[in-house]
Every structure is written in structure tokens, then in C-alpha cells.
Design brief:
heterotrimer; A mainly alpha (229); B alpha/beta (269); C mainly alpha (311); A: 229 residues; 7 helices; B: alpha/beta; Rossmann fold
Chain lengths: 229, 269, 311
């Protein structure tokens, strides 16, 4: 198969698009990681960095949108090119949301500072790690157009959901037992919810990647089966 | 190439044949020793616009011209296989070629109106086939054909002017009007917009859209966007092979064959 | 990577110094030498035209000077006589017209049908190639040969009357036909194939295609060729001498079979006369012949300009 387009400028644009998406993905992965560190290790400096870094993510999203509109207008992409360009457009929207969740976690880490008496906080980094890996793998799958890897990401969402359920139960128990910790726990509950949403978004990205790579939608019953694990 | 059955799902037999306006089975076309078309089987429906796409020299125009036997005039051309119109073999000795071409009309790449008046351009076909019994009849045919070709409002006040004095896009619509004046069942269009500007092209495409259903339309085009815009079925030809034939949306969003994909995404070498 | 794309890549990688378009002395020399060549050619061309026009003008002027006094109503309506004072051109003119009528009547339909058949219907094979070559050769055969042919076939074999316009017409028709066929074929070839496709595409039969579309469009070209062929026939002398159209005819012919003479032969005969009075009459006859020829050529030009289709 001819990998390159006859018009090489088209290839340059597609490569630039992939590069921008990869950069955005890398930045939100890092943001999530740093936000969790800010939360666990109480480093307000890291939290600040995450919040500032989100501006760059937003700018990248705008840049990708512009590039996609330009490619569609000037190159009239077809078939797998078209699917990839559309997927990139949708994926950056989702990544931007993921970035927002990371930013939100970073903001909350400042609220919780000083009250680190709660035990479930130790579960959150593991949960965040899985969600972060899901984001990473989904974007890897996009870069390599790997449908198998994308399916694997979707399968892992159930782990994140399980984490969330268990953290939710624990935090509720905590709040009932120690009403003094309610505000802290509420923040942690939102952090858990944010991470759970990040997992869902990674799943969405994986679904888009699957379509871009194969031209088929993941069948609904497979999705259900995957979700049940 | 693997022997794929490119025809749509139908049970063999008369009932199946009747569903399609035209069918071709294992059609080969040779120019002298060179094989221009290899084993093409395809069905053409009444309700769909069928587009043939492919790189230059892939045989799409050649194949189009076998559908109304325009290749007969090329001395070295030889056609094997079966092509039917309403279940009737068009290459059978009982088939009258002149009659066939009235039933399977054709529009060409370059607008080619006769150097006669607009009226006579349209009226010529009905006249030679005796479709009008009186002058009034003919007037009705001319008006309705020009209306259907979307040209009436532009030319109704100058029907006596020469057809060649019209603009390129108008000339091509005149040619389409001339083709539909004999009420064909199938209209073959061989790159009808390749000599036209984008606005004139859009008007032809709109016209094709309006004519769909009334005539089975087959269009050969170099312009993939055009195939995507006007057709419901697309056939991709490459080096005389029919590589892929399917629903246009599928061909352009998710082609099955690697060669189709490379061509429509602009990777074709 | 595909073949053509890599070729492009190689081409763009090749090193080539940018051309120096500034006014270097080498560049100025090239320009100067090129301009000299241009001027020289234009001058030579103009000289050739002047020379050609000069001879034509000289011919016309000397004919007019000699012959214009010989032109009179009597000259235009009279016939040949031994007295230069009373001779007229009408007998020869009428002979020419009758001969041309026969020539046109035969060569035009036969020539056009031949051209149509060869271009539109005949299969391309060895036989049609032979026919084509023969027709082209026939057009180049010297006219005297046609005269001999006419003498042998029409007079000696078919025993048609001597000196008659019918025989002259037949002989000239043989000579004109190849010209019409060639002109006709060119005119038919110049009708664009798209018109034939258009007609065939709506179900016109081959004969309908030819007679409804090809022939009407080719006709101006065919007519032009025909008129030029006829003009050539009108000026022809040699073959007519061979079939006896050089007799002294004191009465204008009233039918195709009566003895007659034609304009160029008449000029030839008068130029042989010893009597001084015939010099003026010869020039006058040449003026009449030139006038007829110019009229025919003008008609050909008008036909071509008016009916020629632009594609």
C-alpha cells in the first residue's frame, strides 16, 4: 500500500495534526499525574502548574480545530483520512475535558491541604493511574490506528468504575462516622468522580479510534459486554 | 484479482433479472490484442445514479460505451460476456443497435449540440424516431424536455437561436435535454462536467439529482467529489478490473479494497 | 513510494544554476543576432510578395490596355468569325457554360458520394487504401492524358459526336472528380466526431447521421473545393483540343451535342491569327475569362466565410 499521498503537503498536515493531538494527550496525562501528586503530597506549586498548563491545552484544542477545518476545506479528505480527521476533531474536544478534570483535581488539592487524615485518599492514586494509562493507550491507539489496543482500553473502564464505587462507599461511611470531615470528603468524592469521568472519556476516545481505524462502529452488544468485563 | 461477485444480492433467475434495469455478466472488452475490460459483472438500478470512477485509462469510459454499443463503431473493439437491458441481451443479433441507442441515451464529455437551433436540437430525436405526430406534439416535447433539463426559462424566448451560441453549461444541459427528448430508459453520461466551470457543474449535478428515478443514470467522472455528490452506487475501476462496487457512502467513508482506498484518499501512484 | 513521485523528487533535488538574465554582453549579442534574423526574414518575405504582385499587376494592366477597347456589346453577344471586326465571345462562352454544366452534373454527385462512402462507410483495409492512393494520383495526372482518354473512350469507342460540349464535359468531369473527392474528404474529416457521436447517441442510423449532420456541415467545404475544381476545368485547353473542340464555330451551340468551342480554346485560336485586329480581341476574351474565373473564386470565398462552422 502507498502510505503517502500524492500531494505531500497533505501528508505534512496529517502528521502535524497527529503531532498536535499527541502533544495534547501528553500534556493532560502529565496534568493528571501532577494533580494527583499535588493532592497526595500536598505540593501547591504543582497544583499551580497544572492550572496554568491547562491554558496551553485549550490553545492546542483551538489549533487542532483550525487545522481540521483547513484540511477538510482544502484537501477534501476521504475514507480513512476523513475518519481520522473527524476523529482527531472529536478526540481533542474530549482531551480538553480531561484536562479540565485534572485542573479541577488540582484546584481541590489546595482546598484539602492540611487535613490529610482520611484513609481512602490512598486509593485515589491507583485509580488515577489506571485512568491515566487508559488515556495514554487510547491516544497511542490513535497514533498507530490500532483497533485492538482501543478495544483493550474500553475493557479497562470497568476497573475504574469499580474503584469509584468502592471509594464512594468508603467516603460515605467516613462522612457518617466523622461529620467533621464532610467538606474534605466531599472534595475527595468529586476528585474520585473526576477520575471516573476521565476513564469514561478515555473510553469515548477509544471508541472513536476504533471507528477511525476500522470504519466500523464497535457493535453495541460488544460495548455492553466489554463494559461488564 | 479474486473472483468477487460484485453484483447485489439477488437470486438467479428471471425474477432477479427483472429487478435491474441493466445487468452485465463477465464482460470483457478487447481493443485488438489489448484487454481493456476484464470480467466485469455489475447491475444498474432504475432508482439509483451509478457512478464509475477510476484513474485515466482504467476502462470506465470504455465500459460505459459498451452499455449502448457505442464501441461498435471502433473496428478493433470486441466485446464478450452478457449485457442485458430489461433482461434482453443487447449484443444479440435480434437487437437493433439504433433502437438500443434511443433507449440508452448518451451525454458526452464535451458539450456537442448540433449546429442547429435550440428547438431543432431537441426535436431531432423525436423526429427521426417518429415520436411526434404533429407540430403541436413536437412543441410539447421540446418544452417538456427543456423544462426537465432545467433550461426552459433560460431559452424559451430564443428557441430559434443556434444551440452552439449557448454557454458551455447551457450546451451540456441542452445535450441532456436532447437525450431525454426521446424518452430513453437509461442515460449514460461520460464525464459530463469535465469541460464546465463549478457553477455550471453544480447545475448539471442538480439536474442529475432531479432526473434520478425517472431514468437509470450512469455517470463516468474523474471528479471523486462529484461521484460522491450525485451517485448512490459507485464502481471503482482500475486497469480494466472492477475493483469495488457498492453504496457510495460506504465507498467514500469505508472502502473494502485497499486499491479503492488508496485511490479515493489520493494515495494512488 | 511510487514511481512518478520519486522522479519528481529527483528532479527537484538536481542542482542547476539560476539563469543570468541580466544584460551581459553574451546575452546582448544573442538578442542582436536574433533581431537581425527576424528583420531579414521579414524583408525577404515582403520582396517575394512584391514580385508576385508585380507580375500579376503587369498581366492585368497589359490585358486591360490591349483589350478594353475590344469589349463591346457586339463582342459579348457575337460569335466567331474570320473578320476581327465582327467576332464575338458568346459562342465560346455558351460552349463553356454547356461544358461546365455537364462537368458539374457528373463530377459533383459522383465525387461527393465517393468522398462520403470512403470517409463514413468504407472499412479501412488494403482496398480502400489502394482506392485512396489512386484518387490522389488521378488528381495529379496531367490534363492532356485526360484528353487522350476522352478521345479514346468517348469518341473512338462510344462514338459520341466530335467537338460537342457533352464530350468536353465528360472529359473534364473525369479530371475534376478526384479534386472534388479530395476536397470532399477533407471537408467531411473536418466535421468533428462529436457531432457523429451526438447523433448516434440519440439513435440516428448511419445514413441519418451522414445526411442529417455530416453532409450539411461539410457542404460549404465541398462547394469550395468543387468551385475551385470547376474553375480549373474552365481554364483547361489541352484535353479539349484532343477531342476536337477547336473547330471554327460561327454559330453558338444550342445543345450539348452540337459542335462548340470554349473560352480558353477560343483565346488560343485567336492568338494564332495573323490579322492585327485579333490581338485586341484576344485580350478582350482573356478579360472575359478572368472575370468569370474571379467571379467563381469569389463565390467560393463567400461560401467558405459564410457557412463555415466554428468548432
Amino acid at each position: 500500500m502507498a502510505e503517502q499521498h500524492t500531494v505531500s503537503a497533505f501528508d505534512d498536515e496529517i502528521n502535524r495534526l497527529r503531532g498536535l493531538v499527541a502533544e495534547m494527550g501528553g500534556r493532560v496525562e502529565l496534568a493528571l499525574d501532577e494533580a494527583m501528586q499535588a493532592l497526595v503530597k500536598q505540593e501547591p506549586g504543582l497544583a499551580e502548574r497544572v492550572i496554568e498548563g491547562d491554558l496551553r491545552v485549550d490553545a492546542l484544542e483551538a489549533e487542532v480545530e483550525k487545522l481540521v477545518v483547513q484540511i477538510i476545506a482544502l484537501r477534501a479528505p476521504m475514507a480513512n483520512d476523513l475518519r481520522e480527521v473527524i476523529a482527531a476533531l472529536k478526540i481533542v474536544g474530549v482531551i480538553e475535558r480531561i484536562g479540565d478534570y485534572a485542573k479541577n483535581i488540582a484546584k481541590r488539592s489546595r482546598q484539602i491541604s492540611g487535613h490529610r487524615t482520611i484513609e481512602p485518599i490512598s486509593l485515589l492514586p491507583s485509580m488515577a493511574q489506571i485512568a491515566g494509562e487508559m488515556v495514554h493507550d487510547a491516544l497511542d491507539a490513535f497514533a498507530t490506528r490500532n483497533a485492538v489496543l482501543a478495544s483493550a482500553v474500553i475493557e479497562r473502564d470497568v476497573l475504574v468504575d469499580n474503584f469509584y464505587n468502592s471509594i464512594f462507599r468508603t467516603l460515605v461511611t467516613y462522612m457518617v462516622e466523622n461529620p467533621k470531615t464532610i467538606s474534605e470528603c466531599a472534595h475527595l468524592l468529586f476528585v474520585a468522580k473526576n477520575i471516573e469521568r476521565i476513564g469514561d472519556h478515555a473510553t469515548n476516545v477509544a471508541e472513536m479510534v476504533y471507528y477511525a481505524a476500522t470504519g466500523e462502529y464497535l457493535p453495541e452488544r460488544d460495548r455492553a459486554a466489554l463494559a461488564e468485563g | 484479482m479474486v473472483a468477487l461477485d460484485m453484483t447485489t444480492d439477488t437470486v438467479p433467475g428471471d425474477a432477479a433479472v427483472a429487478q435491474h434495469k441493466m445487468t452485465t455478466r463477465n464482460v470483457n472488452v478487447y481493443y485488438g490484442a489489448k484487454q481493456a475490460i476484464k470480467d466485469v459483472s455489475i447491475d444498474i438500478d432504475m432508482d439509483n445514479v451509478t457512478a464509475f470512477i477510476g484513474p485515466s485509462g482504467c476502462g470506465k469510459s470504455t465500459f460505459l460505451r459498451t452499455l449502448n454499443r457505442m464501441n461498435d463503431t471502433v473496428a478493433s473493439a470486441r466485446v464478450t460476456g452478457e449485457i442485458t437491458l430489461d433482461g434482453e441481451d443487447i449484443y444479440a443479433s435480434s437487437m437493433d443497435v439504433v433502437q438500443l441507442r434511443a433507449r440508452v441515451g448518451m451525454v458526452f464529455q464535451k458539450p456537442n449540440p448540433f449546429p442547429k437551433s435550440i428547438y431543432d436540437n431537441i426535436a431531432y430525436g423525436p423526429r427521426i424516431h417518429g415520436l411526434a405526430t404533429s407540430k403541436a406534439d413536437l412543441d410539447v416535447i421540446v418544452e417538456s424536455s427543456l423544462r426537465r433539463a432545467g433550461l426552459w426559462d433560460e431559452v424559451k424566448d430564443r428557441l430559434r437561436d443556434s444551440g452552439t451560441a449557448l454557454s458551455g453549461g447551457q450546451q451540456q444541459r441542452l445535450c441532456i435535454g436532447r437525450a431525454i427528448a426521446v424518452e430513453p430508459e437509461v442515460i449514460l453520461m461520460d464525464e459530463p462536467c469535465s469541460a464546465l466551470d463549478p457553477i455550471a457543474t453544480a447545475k448539471i449535478e442538480e439536474l442529475i439529482h432531479a432526473l434520478r428515478g425517472r431514468y437509470a443514470i450512469v455517470i463516468v467522472t474523474h471528479n471523486m467529489q462529484q461521484a460522491a455528490r450525485v451517485s448512490q452506487r459507485t464502481a471503482f475501476f482500475h486497469l480494466g478490473d472492477l475493483v469495488e462496487y457498492g453504496v457510495t457512502t460506504d465507498i467514500f467513508t469505508n472502502p473494502r479494497e485497499e486499491r479503492t482506498k488508496d485511490y479515493i484518499t489520493g494515495r494512488y501512484g | 513510494m511510487t514511481e512518478p513521485a520519486s522522479a519528481i523528487a529527483i528532479a527537484t533535488n538536481m542542482e542547476r544554476k539560476p539563469t543570468d538574465w541580466s544584460a551581459s554582453s553574451k546575452m546582448r549579442q544573442r538578442l542582436a543576432s536574433r533581431n537581425r534574423t527576424e528583420k531579414m526574414f521579414q524583408f525577404t518575405g515582403l520582396a517575394a510578395v512584391v514580385l508576385a504582385v508585380f507580375f500579376l499587376a503587369f498581366l492585368l494592366w497589359s490585358m486591360l490596355a490591349d483589350g478594353v477597347h475590344g469589349l463591346s456589346w457586339q463582342f459579348l453577344t457575337g460569335t466567331d468569325s474570320s473578320d476581327p471586326e465582327t467576332v464575338g465571345i458568346w459562342g465560346a462562352l455558351k460552349g463553356s457554360l454547356l461544358t461546365m454544366a455537364v462537368t458539374l452534373g457528373l463530377s459533383f454527385p459522383i465525387g461527393v458520394l465517393t468522398a462520403l462512402y470512403l470517409e463514413e462507410f468504407a472499412p479501412r483495409n488494403m482496398w480502400t487504401d489502394i482506392v485512396e492512393v489512386s484518387i490522389n494520383n488521378l488528381a495529379a495526372v496531367p490534363s492532356i492524358i485526360f484528353g487522350l482518354l476522352g478521345l479514346a473512350v468517348f469518341l473512338n469507342f462510344m462514338h459520341l459526336p466530335r467537338s460537342a460540349p457533352v464530350v468536353g464535359g465528360l472529359t473534364l468531369a473525369l479530371m475534376t472528380m478526384p479534386v472534388i473527392v479530395i476536397a470532399g474528404r477533407n471537408a467531411i474529416k473536418s466535421v468533428p466526431p462529436s457531432i457523429r457521436d451526438a447523433a448516434r447517441g440519440i439513435g440516428a442510423s448511419p445514413v441519418q447521421v451522414v445526411f442529417h449532420h455530416v453532409l450539411p456541415l461539410a457542404l460549404p467545404g465541398i462547394m469550395t473545393g468543387t468551385i475551385i475544381g470547376m474553375a480549373r476545368a474552365l481554364g483547361e485547353t489541352a484535353p479539349l483540343l484532343m477531342i476536337g473542340m477547336r473547330a471554327f464555330i460561327p454559330t453558338p451551340p444550342s445543345s450539348f451535342t452540337e459542335p462548340a468551342t470554349v473560352l480558353p480554346v477560343q483565346i488560343f485560336l485567336w492568338s494564332d491569327e495573323i490579322s492585327q485586329g485579333f490581338v485586341e480581341k484576344t485580350s478582350a476574351a482573356i478579360i472575359v475569362l478572368l472575370a468569370v474565373l474571379m467571379t467563381m473564386n469569389s463565390i467560393a470565398i463567400i461560401l467558405r466565410n459564410r457557412f463555415e462552422q466554428k468548432w
